[in-house]
Amino acid sequence: MTTTTMTAPAPAVVPARGRRPGPTLRLVLAELRLVVRDPMTLTFVFAFPVVTMLIIGGSFGTEADPVFEGQNPAHWYVASYVSVAIGATGLVMLPVRIASYRERGVLRRFAVAGFPRWSFALAQVCVGLLAVVLATALLLAVAAPVYGVPPLVHPGRVLLGGTAGAVAFVALGVLLGTLLPSARAAQAVGLLLFFPSFLLGVGGPPPQVMGEGLQTLSQFLPLAVVTDALRGPWLGLDGGDGPLLGTLALAAGSLVLAASRTRL
Amino acid sequence: MTDDDVVTVRGLHKAYGGRVVVDDLDLDVRAGEVVGLIGANGAGKTTTVECLQGLRQPDAGSVRVLGLDPVRDAERLRPLVGAQLQDSALPDRMRVGEAVRLFARRRGPQGAQLLERFGLGERHRSPFAGLSGGERQRLFLVLALLGEPRLVVLDELTQGLDPAARREVWSAVAQLRDGGTTVLLVTHELDEAEALCGRVVAMRAGRVLDAGTPAELVARHAAGATVRFTCTGDVRGLRALPGVTEVTTDGATVTVRGERQVIAQVGAWLVPRGPVPADLRVDVPDLEHALLALLDGAGPTPVRGAA
């Protein structure tokens, strides 16, 4: 039989030395610490965009091609694949992480301990945005010596589109995580949402070689809209303001929906 | 309601999709009590305490915890109630010390003191996934006690633990009891309720069957005793002893059943008849027998009663 040493009962009241940081900040820091401690949870987000970018980016050569709107195909894909990291984070990593927490009773434990309902969601948004930033840095670090990183023609618009796109999909990930009942369900639904978007709207064949139906469909995929908002100003393509406005609207809508589902 | 009333529930009703889980339940817990909510799985115990913690909205009835409404006053109430939940966990990689810092509302030595008090002082840097079942439950106790809550709710605290780990956790709860903490203990382990609770409330199908001290429930619903021994002589005289309701023999084994006093009466009968049989055995019903008797006798519609 295990013997446990129990000391005398502690005094009922211990004088407080001061206030702790707020519960939301404590939760955000704890979640970020856990992600850094267990980077394997980010494997899909880190590895998938890099591996597929290396394969697809080298498949069409490096000569400017009208099929790629007159761009170097490798650069066209490098500029596209930041969205792959965004989609992988929002559609796969976050839903699985949050659903797993709910399945194991972690969310109920946070709720009953008095953490505000939205604080866990905010912590996951921070984790998601960190994942996107790190995955993007890794993607560009690998692309630079292999295909080169194309210069940002409109850096402000790229930053705005990328940030809005990341916020949109991270919020979508939080929403999915609160809706799906289990980690397995989250993984199945997440992958089902991710791969069609990836193939048709971001990292698959260029839209010009697709059939008319698939081309039309790809224009309306949210991840494709985010890709256009990033790739257009990055490469100086003539895409107008539509993709950026669409991405901003997507971010606002996803945030509202996620905020409405903060019940743990 | 007085300052002594920690939990006051009247007419609580909760159904899920038309299935009634808690039905017209009354419950009172006073300051300093350790009250056990007992009953089989599906009796409505967990739903009841979830309503007390504001995790579920009652369909009808009044629930007051420390004078507050658990749903409407959730933010005010949460610091006053410590909770250990059935089937809950922490992230696998979260360390014991980090969990304490995360859940503590104030700076101070309280977390470290509680870890020491519950035998986890050496596990400060251990990840949650590396803790044994007993250590996890003791960590949940520590987290529930951070901030000196006025009420601690413990739901199936020892579920799935081996006997040694159960004893560890019991010892920890006994410390709380001895320190005067008000505890609501939800369990279907009746030996646990008998060992730890000053008062138990027996539930079935969402309703209260009976309430009282474990000894009162045993006396009301399983008051008898059984004495067994080997005897080759004439045992007909046993039937005439006060309190005896039944005497049976199986070969040389004699079984005497009756009221609790048959223990003394049979003993007194045996002593003048030579050496006391070496296999003399007395079976006294415990809370488990009482609850089984209660469930058997309750019929399909339990009687409503204030607890």
Features:
heterodimer; A: 264 residues; mainly alpha; 70% helix; B: 307 residues; alpha/beta; six-stranded mixed sheet; four-stranded antiparallel sheet; 10 helices; 30% helix; globular; disordered C terminus
Give the topology, please:
The complex is a heterodimer of chains A (264) and B (307).
Chain A: E1 18-19, H1 23-37, H2 43-57, H3 73-80, H4 82-104, H5 106-112, H6 117-146, H7 155-179, H8 183-202, H9 212-220, H10 222-235, H11 242-260
Helix pairs in contact in A: 1-6, 2-4, 2-6, 3-10, 4-6, 4-7, 4-8, 4-10, 6-7, 7-10, 7-11, 8-10, 10-11
Chain B: E1 5-16, E2 19-30, E3 34-38, H1 45-52, E4 60-65, H2 74-77, E5 81-84, H3 96-103, E6 106-107, H4 110-117, H5 133-145, E7 151-155, H6 163-178, E8 182-187, H7 190-196, E9 199-204, E10 207-212, H8 214-221, E11 225-230, E12 244-250, E13 253-258, H9 262-270, E14 281-283, H10 287-298
Parallel strand pairs in B: 3-8, 3-9, 5-7, 7-8
Antiparallel strand pairs in B: 1-2, 1-4, 9-10, 11-13, 11-14, 12-13
Helix pairs in contact in B: 5-6, 8-10
Would you write up a description of this structure?
- The complex is a heterodimer of chains A (264) and B (307).
- Chain A is 70% helix and 1% strand.
- The longest helix of chain A has 30 residues, at 117-146.
- Chain A starts with 17 loop residues before the first strand and ends with a helix.
- Chain A has helices spanning 23-37, 43-57, 73-80, 82-104, 106-112, 117-146, 155-179, 183-202, 212-220, 222-235, 242-260, and one strand at residues 18-19.
- By secondary structure, chain A is an all-alpha fold.
- Chain A is elongated and about 60 Å long.
- Chain B is of the alpha/beta class.
- Helices cover 30% and strands 28% of the residues of chain B.
- Chain B contains ten helices and 14 strands.
- In chain B, the strands form three sheets. Chain B has a six-stranded mixed sheet with strand order 5-7-8-3-9-10, sandwiched between helices. A four-stranded antiparallel sheet of chain B has the order 12-13-11-14, with helices on one face. Chain B has a three-stranded antiparallel sheet with strand order 2-1-4, covered by helices on one side.
- In chain B, β1 (5-16) and β2 form a beta hairpin.
- In chain B, α5 runs parallel beside α6 and α8 packs across α10 (287-298).
- The interface between A and B is large, with 35 and 45 residues.
- β1 of chain A pairs antiparallel with β6 of chain B.
